[in-house]
Amino acid sequence: MKMEENNKHVQPNSKEEGVQRLNRILSESLIKATDTYKTPPQIIWVDNSSIATLGNFSASTGKAKAKKTFNVSALVAASLSNGKVLNYRASLPEGKRKILYVDTEQSRYHCHNVLERILKLAGLPTSIDNENLDFICLREYTPSVRIEVINYALAQDQSYGLVIIDGIRDLLLDINNAGESVEVINKMMEWSSKYDLHIHCVLHQNKGDNNVRGHIGTEMNNKAETVLVITKSTTNPDISEVKAMHIREKEFKPFAFTVNEEGLPEIVEHTPEKEEGDKQPSRFTYQDLTSEQHNEALTAAFKEKPIKGFDRMVEELTQAYADIGFKRGRSVIIKMLKYLMNEQKLLKKKNVKSDRRKTMLICTDKAQECYSIKRKEAYHICININRRAIKMSKENTDKKMFERYEFRNIHMEEISQAAEIEKIC
């Protein structure tokens, strides 16, 4: 209860109450050399490598249809039986034997299939409910209601030792919203610490690369105790491979499984082929940032004024993007600068009054808005030229004079002339 009270951003009735609250938080957070702490109980292993401890959270990721839920079913079955399933070995302590499985994606029919699969893998009857496994389907509810229900369930029953959230993406509205992502990950840390349990989340990878999806994926990679990645074999699509993407303990030897005729996962001998492009998923890149995140950083960098000089531009972008959580070195920022110009988020402006023709860069929020309506030709014409320049271009006159017209931010009233301008193009 203290943790919830401390996390609430309430307005204190007086300055004295605010000081008392901060003193309490500071006192509870202080780590002393004379303190003693118990080693967090390990509850799940692969071979001799611990992948889950009480008071922490972990995750599984993989592309669609990689059999992530089959893998999680084996992990839960091992925990339910306190035994071994596939390569997972589990031992939940007394008083923490219960498991809460939360599914946010599938229908009730498919959730029931997963429940039956877990019971079969654990060697338990499917005709009766097991007192140590609670399975809830929250598909039809909003993200805020899902979080509220999970929070209530954990508060009501202190005997949960393992919680599965199959679809952590569905606990937030926007997978790329930094604020929402941090709040959800903070919830994982709060629940696991407050109720002394382990939470295992499931999240998809991007279709185009091996990165975990969205800003929530970035936060999860940074904070999770273990991140498992499940991939389809490149030589046999019926086989799925499991390995550690990130792990705090020693890394375990990857293993593979297939689904048998009974619809249950089973270990299979398989040696994955090492391909040239088979690399560990890279961290979050500037191409993974949303338009809102780019706009926030660019607005802070430009402060509604052009930036003169290349070095100063790199410096301003480095600081602005670091402020939104994207801290990168000079080489990455330079690559991102080229990307922003190609994506028409930034424009060059030549200073024709100077013999040296210095270059400035201008942030173009309205231009980007215009470009988003897929009127590319109208977009370029509106930005670069005015009516006189259009006429000169049409008549194919002095091109040097044409180039002298400076880049400028687009005005939305010019869009009404788009159809006429496109004809000139």
How does this structure look, described?
- By secondary structure, the chain is α/β, with parallel strands linked by helices.
- The chain has helices at 2-7, 15-29, 68-81, 108-121, 143-156, 178-194, 214-223, 291-302, 310-323, 330-342, 365-371, 376-384, 387-394, 399-403, 418-424; strands at residues 42-46, 49-53, 57-62, 84-85, 88-90, 98-103, 133-137, 160-166, 198-204, 226-232, 239-247, 255-259, 265-267, 307-308, 346-350, 359-363.
- The strands form 3 sheets. It has a 9-stranded mixed β-sheet with strand order 7-6-8-9-3-10-11-12-13, with helices on both faces. The chain has a 4-stranded antiparallel β-sheet with strand order 2-1-5-4, with helices on one face. It has a 3-stranded antiparallel β-sheet with strand order 14-16-15.
- The relative contact order is 0.09.
- The N and C termini lie far apart (66 Å).
- Strand 4 (84-85) and strand 5 (88-90) form a beta hairpin.
- Helix 8 (291-302) packs across helix 9, helix 9 packs across helix 10 (330-342) and helix 12 (376-384) crosses helix 15.
Features of this protein?
single chain, 425 residues, alpha/beta, four-stranded antiparallel sheet, 15 helices, 39% helix, globular, disordered C terminus
